[in-house]
TrEMBL record:
Keywords: Chloroplast, Cytochrome c-type biogenesis, Membrane, Plastid, Thylakoid, Transmembrane, Transmembrane helix. Pfam families: Cytochrom_C_asm (PF01578). One of its GO terms (molecular function) is heme binding. Residues 70-317 form the Cytochrome c assembly protein domain. Required during biogenesis of c-type cytochromes (cytochrome c6 and cytochrome f) at the step of heme attachment. This is Cytochrome c biogenesis protein CcsA. Belongs to the CcmF/CycK/Ccl1/NrfE/CcsA family. The chain crosses the membrane at residues 6-28, 40-63, 75-91, 98-118, 138-164, 232-250, 265-280, 292-313. May interact with Ccs1. GO terms for cellular component: chloroplast thylakoid membrane; plasma membrane.
Amino acid sequence: MMTLAILEAFLTPFGLITLLLATLLLWASPILAHDKRVLFFHKIAATLANASITGLLLLRWLISGHLPISNLYESTMFLSWNLTLLHLVLSHKKIQPWIGPVLIPSATLIYAFTTFALPTKMQQSTLLVPALQSNWLMMHVSMMMLSYGALLSGSLLAVTLLIVKRLLVAKESYLSVWGQPFFSAQEKRSLTISPSLTFHYANYFLQIELACLKVRQEALTEQLDHWSYRTIGIGFPLLTVGILSGAVWANEAWGSYWTWDPKEVWALVTWLTFAAYLHIRLRQGWEGEKPAILASVGFFVVWVCYLGVNLLGRGLHSYGWIQ
């Protein structure tokens, strides 16, 4: 048992260091013109980070004797593991340029919050209370945490879409103000580079950049929208299974399928938010910015459901409540 505790004490800072390294290497990649070696070392760091978090969860499982998602520390660690795993699965050439900068910094912030912000007492592994000693623990909590990871990832991509849209629109507006029509036929035939012609040359390249910008904008926003929709499409069924299994577990433990506990209410709000998102995508055929706004709202709803209720509210799901 002492050896396991020492190993856990080593893996905890090691996971944070590798996550920070993966984030810095990812941010350095555009500066170094997408150097393949930088991306290679980033992937190694991200893999080591995921492996260290996996090791931590397995160690806590061995120490406590139950699935390590029974308190806020373990569940946030599991969420960080979920995001790093999703990044590794999706980190191929077509997705890597923008999926990493969204997921890896998020996993790093969650891991840092788990390590430094939560009280030491809450980080300790404890025996399960009688209400949690059920086979439904693994089914319900694991499904909810996996759904949180997928929904947060899809929502973050939607937020990124909106930010990129605004930045590109601002740049397009700037170029359109300074850009002028292309050369006249007479100026094209002229061999003298006058100050006026030099100004038109500058405007000509601005027009080319504006045209390229529109092409890049459409390609980037389409990719962000596509993968945001697909990721949320994975998270929503997981959330549904998690809520249903929780209802069955609640009936077994408390004699009622639904008690309008704060956590249950916000889980329902989360489900309705993403149900509305999928409805407007599937039935209304909306794409791009409009559904991304709703998905961005869902990002905050998920955090209120997962973390806000545990920190600020008290109820049957108060295992993470901080006094």
